[in-house]
UniProtKB/TrEMBL annotation:
Xref: InterPro entries: Beta-ketoacyl_synthase, Ketoacyl_synth_AS, Ketoacyl_synth_C, Ketoacyl_synth_N, PKS_Beta-ketoAc_synthase_dom, Thiolase-like
The keyword Ribosomal protein is assigned to this record: no
Keyword entries, A-Z: Isoprene biosynthesis, Transferase
NCBIfam families referenced in this protein's UniProt entry, alphabetically: PRK07314.1 (NF005589)
Biological source species: Natronoarchaeum mannanilyticum
Name assigned to this protein: Beta-ketoacyl-ACP synthase II
Amino acid sequence: MDRDAVVTGIGLVTPLGMTADRTWEAVCEGAAAADTITRFDPDETAVRSQIACEIDGRPADQTVDDRMMGRYAQLAVAAAAEAITDAGFDPGEPSWTPRRVGTSVASTFGGLSEIEAATGRRPSPRFLITALANLAAGHVSMCFDAQGPNRSPATACAAGAHAIADAVADIRTGRADVVIAGGTEAPITPTGVGGFDAMRALSTRNDEPERASRPFDADREGFVLAEGCGILVLEERSHAAERGVTPYAAITGSGLTADAHHPTRPAEEGRGLQRCLERALEDATLDPDAVDHVNAHATSTPTGDAREATALQSVFDAVPPVTSVKGALGHALSGAGAIESAIVATAISERTVPPTVNYENPDPECDLPVVTEARNTSLDVAVTTSAGFGGTNGALVFERP
């Protein structure tokens, strides 16, 4: 018997909102979250890029524990609480079977701010449980009594998509009936910003931060670092039907590939991402012309966006409408693919394609139908792409359930 994975709950904590509804509304309104860094004084670190997409304050959810959780884990626990409630679950009720509930929550940097705070000092007894990258998944499992498979991919900017792909596999193979899946990152620290700044990967449009992240635009010159978390509750389709729940979308295909090319530069002509998307569509048993919308990785870097555009042109005879929400939300690294998966699932449910903020000057190297204003339309199939340092790629196929 086929065991299909459907999305029944969504939770988001992002620079544009502490909930999924607020984030979705702000993205559709064309808001941009980038501003001058406040988490630390960028003048003291001599970074060229002094802007980021920060979350205002800390999650207020009662399950968040400042003493036991690093910031990245706090974001994950808060988003998971929202997603579980949104799915109609109560971990104390009979429908929540702990041994059949898994967690798959990605993070690469983990507790970077906690690591920096402990550098040069004797660590506290709680240091490791606030710093290790797998503790977002660990804390989520403990807070919500999820005793099934537990993992935390650390595959850089593709990790969120990989965590969701792994969760789909858990459901398909019968390892779990429900999986709390997504990605989280809190990298806005002197080391996080400084590292990418030293590579000249970040935008230096410090005088116009809200216009700095420009996916596919001819004037793009680097990405804007962000923090954030996206969590999906994935559920086996018949399990959701027995509860009387209407899913947002089904995840019917996934693809994972390696460029095997370069630590930071994507493969020529985006071949690795091309193969990844082709594999995801093959897994979903869909032809490319069935796709109505692409949520692109598109971080706003000159080379990355151009090679992704070439990959899309290679997969599709006619590329469907394309959006990158990083113009609004910046790039949350391991959180990005999960946040964007939540956006795609919502787009299918709401029959709305969100806009790409700051796309103003078309680039001949990125000849794509980029969406610039929210568009109401029927979406039956949408895909999302992710790519990370090390040449790692991920793609997911979402369908109307």
